[in-house]
Every structure is written in structure tokens, then in C-alpha cells.
Write a structure and sequence with these properties.
39% helix, two-stranded antiparallel ribbon, alpha+beta, Double Stranded RNA Binding Domain, single chain
């Protein structure tokens, strides 16, 4: 089939205008579809509909081996590889195998150096979209969303809604494996990797995998030399705040 629609950011081609419109959002970071229950934002309507099952509890896709239910068919297919041991995606450079195509594609960029997610403000490129979204906050200090309880300000309604749960104690996102509740869906997704053992956040410098984006950001400081946490008593710098707190005990 002919693919006349070409992405101006990365050159990828598509058969239909709707496909390229959805794809462009991976570069721009635009998320026009919002969940009314929690404020989570999505690039596609179908992703929002799937997400809403977290709130309704609906899990229409069931594993015939263990009976575990899933909110989407793709999650069921990935899960079934736990039973079969299949890793259908193999890196031709280093031979590493992956159960998911998305993780395989991210890994390949370590070898190619490709950084398809570009900041429109400064031109800096990133391997993963979450890195771009995190970086873009550097360019704005505006925080228009205010908490009525403590007056703390946030850059997005999603951040405000998540923060307000610290006051209400609400934990609407529950792990189907162990029952633990979370204030954010992203925290739930990160937690679920404890059960699967997957490390989806990959360092572009050395290929090390991390369970969370925050762990990856901390690890990347090993390569950059950045030490943002400084002791006021002696001026020594540290990669993470916990290391600074331990060091400060030496001065007491």
C-alpha cells in the first residue's frame, strides 16, 4: 500500500492522515485526550479508553494459563510470554532478546545513536519520549495550577490532581498482582515491573536498564558528572539527595 504521508520530524511514512497526526504527537508531546477521573493525558483516544479500565476495573482479556485478566489484548499477549519464555525481538548487534517490540526499538537506538524526540525550544534530542517531556519543563517556570489545601503550585492539572491525593489519601490505581494502591498510574506501571523484572528505561551511554525513569536520571549523572546536591558545610557534591543526607551526619 502506498504511504504518501511523511513525518516532517523523522521521515516515517503513513498511509492515512489520521496515522501521521497520531504519530506527530510522539515528537511534539501533545496529549489532547484527558481522563476525567484522574487527569492522565494521552496522545490517542484509544489509549484513553484502555486507561479508563483502570478506574472501572474492567479486564476483558484473560490468560487461559493462569486466569489473570488484562485491560488490553496486547498486555495479554506480552504476559503469555512469561509462560512460553519467548523473546521474539532480538538485537542483531548484541544478541539481546526482548519480549516487547517497544523495548526492542528503544534498545536499538543505543547502537544507532538515533534520538527521534527533539525539543522545539533548544533542539536537544532524546532517545525516549519521557526524557523529552521531562526536559521541556526546564524551559518554563509557569505553574498555574494551585492546591486549595496548601497553595502549592504545579505546571499541569495532572500534577495537581496527583498531589491532592497526598491530602485525601486516595490511591485509585491498584496492582492486580499484590493489591498495593498508588496515587499515580505511572507509579503503578513502575511498580508492576517489580513483578515482571523488566527494566524499560535504558541508558543511551552504556545500555544499562533501570526500572524507573528517576533511577535512570540518577544513573546518567555517573556519565555526565553532574552532582546537584551540595553540602552547605563543606561544599562536597552528590549524585542523589540520600547520599547528601548520609554525608551530612558526619558534620553533626
Amino acid at each position: 500500500m502506498e504511504k504518501p504521508w511523511k513525518c516532517e520530524y523523522c521521515g516515517k511514512r503513513f498511509s492515512y492522515p489520521s496515522q501521521i497526526e497520531n504519530h506527530r504527537r510522539s515528537h511534539t508531546g501533545e496529549r489532547p485526550f484527558s481522563c476525567l477521573a484522574c487527569g492522565e493525558e494521552f496522545t490517542q483516544r484509544s489509549s484513553l479508553l484502555t486507561h479508563q479500565r483502570i478506574h472501572t476495573g474492567e479486564r476483558p482479556f484473560t490468560c487461559c494459563d493462569c486466569g489473570k485478566g488484562f485491560t488490553q489484548s496486547a498486555s495479554l499477549r506480552r504476559h503469555q510470554r512469561v509462560h512460553t519464555g519467548k523473546t521474539p525481538y532480538t538485537c542483531s548487534v548484541c544478541g539481546k532478546g526482548f519480549t516487547q517490540s517497544a523495548n526492542f526499538q528503544r534498545h536499538r537506538r543505543i547502537h544507532t545513536g538515533e534520538k527521534p524526540f527533539t525539543c522545539s525550544a533548544c533542539g536537544k534530542g532524546f532517545i525516549q519520549s519521557f526524557e523529552l517531556l521531562t526536559h521541556q519543563q526546564v524551559h518554563t517556570e509557569e505553574r498555574p495550577f494551585h492546591c486549595s489545601e496548601c497553595q502549592k503550585c504545579f505546571k499541569s492539572i495532572k500534577q495537581l490532581l496527583a498531589h491532592q491525593r497526598t491530602h485525601t489519601g486516595e490511591r485509585p490505581f491498584t496492582c492486580s498482582v499484590c493489591g498495593k494502591g498508588f496515587t499515580r498510574s505511572s507509579t503503578l506501571l513502575t511498580h508492576q515491573q517489580v513483578h515482571t523484572g523488566e527494566k524499560t528505561f535504558i541508558c543511551s551511554e552504556c545500555g544499562k536498564g533501570c526500572i524507573t525513569s528517576s533511577h535512570l536520571l540518577i544513573h546518567q549523572r555517573v556519565h555526565s558528572g553532574e552532582r546537584p546536591f551540595t553540602c552547605l558545610a563543606c561544599g562536597k557534591g552528590f549524585i542523589q539527595s540520600s547520599h547528601l543526607q548520609k554525608h551530612q551526619r558526619l558534620h553533626k
